[in-house]
Amino acid sequence: MLTEKLSNEKVLRDPIHNFIHIQDRVILDLINTTEFQRLRRVQQLGITSAVFHGAEHSRFGHSVGAYEIARRITEHFEQYYRSENENDGLWDPRERQVTLVAALLHDIGHGAFSHTFEHLFHTDHEAITREIITGDTEINTVLSRVSPDFPNKVASVIAKTYDNPQVVQLISSQLDVDRMDYLLRDAYFTGTKYGEFDIDRILRTMKPTSNGIAFDIAGMHAVEDYVVSRYQMYLQVYFHPVSRGMEVLLEHLLQRAHELYQASGTHEKDFVGPILTPLFNNEHLTIHDYLQIDDHVFMTYISMWRHHPDPILSDLSTRFLDRHPLKSIIIDDKTAPLLEDLEKLVNIAGYNADYYTARNDAFDLPYDDYKPNVAKPRTQIDFVLDDGSHRELSELSPLVSAIKGQVSFDKRFYFPREMLNIEPDELFSDTFKTFRSYIHNNALTTPNPES
């Protein structure tokens, strides 16, 4: 089955790649599994659609998009860089299938609301991805038809332990099929043009080497544009303060629901329901339990919790459903000690600071050199010059050099928007006024009693 082709190529219409070309039986069978179809019910950007209303695309679309980029790359490699002998450092066509399957399945383990779920319930989507691939699943059944060891091969690509660095870097590196698809797809659905880059040029200049993947020097400016696009997308979309305010609401309402569940008697636990019970019981989730949970499941329960008798859970759920995010201000290490004062003021105003405030840090490293001694070394982007020598991207691009190793930080404090109320007749007007005295130009500062 490894080389079995469909009698007629199937295509999926796609707004990013125009067509997703499905030529292999194993790819079509994987797409039709229960586990893969679940990705239609997990949004790619979690709750970002609360800010960018078009961002309702799913992990399903991203996964088939990453597959399509991998398919284009492997076809390009087979046509122009096909290996002639074992040690020439070129592309071995026998690696095609494991590459395509790994690209298709790289996000199969993502949970509901994506990284918010992962943070709150301490799951690891990559570990779960490997468990789905190798466990008692439809996906494993399909992969095992290829060969008994094929599931483990695919899982090792996800784990970055596969013995071919070309395959690993195509799936996970600083310029891989995952990042290329999600940047273009997220830019399209959020309407943010600065996330676009010339993927066709990048793919044409990509080439296999004995150490992994490199790029022809002619494609340097296209790759440079990709790095800058990624940098801009993190600042403008992925770090958006309102999206993070919605994430804080989601995290806190789930935290409140979990605490209420733990404190409830047996007959009072019905508000959680059977699907979420293993999660709220702090049990080790089986793959079967995990795969039942998606965005739609959580939204159903949150809609019910809007009417829960607990005022905090009810209010947080209502704020989340009706898009009333928490407000935020910028903080830094110097002003962070003042946050205790603000939290006390929030409590005085009648809001439990444990649920209505949060310190939220967002950070990203847009590009960095390869450092083999760190816990998670990042593969560098290499270019092949006309004489055959290799140079790293930041050595060639002053623009990338300027942001190399520079971590982007955005530290914020979240609180109820009502704390900024300026109505004079409010019961807590003095409290609100004191709270506002700590804020200047949307940042936390030493309080000014006259403000």
Describe this structure in words.
A hairpin with a 2-residue loop joins strand 10 (439-440) and strand 11 (443-444). The protein has a 4-stranded mixed sheet with strand order 3-4-7-8. A 3-stranded antiparallel sheet has the order 5-9-6, sandwiched between helices. Strands 1-2 form a two-stranded antiparallel sheet. It has helices spanning 25-31, 34-37, 59-80, 96-105, 115-121, 125-134, 138-146, 150-158, 165-171, 177-190, 199-205, 220-238, 241-263, 277-280, 287-291, 295-305, 311-321, 339-348, 353-356, 393-396, 398-403, 429-436, and strands at residues 5-14, 18-24, 206-209, 212-216, 327-330, 358-364, 382-384, 390-392, 408-415, 439-440, 443-444. Helix content is 47%, strand content 12%. It has 22 helices and 11 strands. With 451 residues, it is α+β, with helices and mostly antiparallel strands.
Calculate the mean pLDDT score and round it: 91
Q: Which outline best applies?
A: globular
Based on secondary structure, the structural category is: alpha+beta
Q: Roughly how much helix do the residues carry, as a percent range?
A: 40-55%
- Name the strands of the widest sheet in spatial order: 3-4-7-8
- Number of distinct beta strands: 11
> Unreliable segments (pLDDT under 50, ≥5 consecutive)?
none
Largest sheet: 4 strands, mixed
- What is the C-alpha radius of gyration, as a whole number of Å? 25 Å
SS element count, helices: 22
Strand share of the residues?
5-15%
Q: What is the terminal-to-terminal distance?
A: 73 Å
